[in-house]
What does this fold into?
Amino acid sequence: MTATEEHRFSRWAAGTVGLALLAIPLVCWAVGAPNPLAAPGTSSGRTLAFLPQPAAHLVMIACGALIIAAAVVRGERIGTAVRIAALGAFALLLDSGALAAIGYLPFMVVSAVTGHVDKLAAYLSVPLLMQLAMAVAAASLLWTVVARQAPGGAVAHELARARTARWTKIAMIAPLVYAATRFLMVLDVPGFAVPMDAVDKGAGLGLAVAATGGAVLTWGLIRPWGERWPRWMPRVAGREVPVNFPVVAALSVSVLVMTAAKEILSIAAVPGSALSAAPMAWLPMLLWPLWSVALALAALNYRARRTTTPQPAAV
It folds into this structure.
């Protein structure tokens, strides 16, 4: 995908999501339905719940208009400024719901296999689908702001390789530490034990598995199977992994982690919160801002490494 195609995808994603953010509150307003990001009783997408319904509609419309502007405004300086402002709008609207949905997916799949298919209905909720769409659009906008055409040559390639290795290793620390704490919570290890029933322990185990899987996928940024599909994968085995596939995925997760970190930091500032009640279990989540930044930098340097020329082999 060329730089022009990357910007085209970013404009398409931002424009589509921006139009949805304009249309949804207008429809809700017309039929008297609650705003999906301020609806009572929802577990995901409650970022505007502190506002009365009319104000929530207006805020979403304003954010949608700004995001549409980011999709259509051209020019280097003003375009970058509008995209940065649109990222601020996404930061306001995004919450931890999408990241939680990804984390709980292993538990939900096991629940479905064991006959509790109804639990998967949560993944079809409008707020959650909005969160996922906004995360992808925000990641694509972030890409156009921070990504620049990497200089060519072997030196640039080796520099990108070194940076990818460094930031990838840092980005793996937070999810692995988080996974370890969830395993310890499930095992009721002193210092990590919190009141949990069997369902809670199953969900905690699922979170640990998901976090470990995320760390393994991050590792792929510096492994051969992060450039060519492994042999055990049908149809694509041995083919080159599209450069932008892991980059978009990593940037999307980076955005989700940062929005979740926003909530974690706000909870940590409240005396008597869950973090203070069980600090060993929750303190690792304070690493999430670092995780988000490291993952984004690892992805961008992976892209630079894949799009520059390696050092020729010695003869």
User: Anything to note?
Assistant: Residues 3-146 form one domain. Residues 56 and 283 are 32 Å apart (CA to CA).
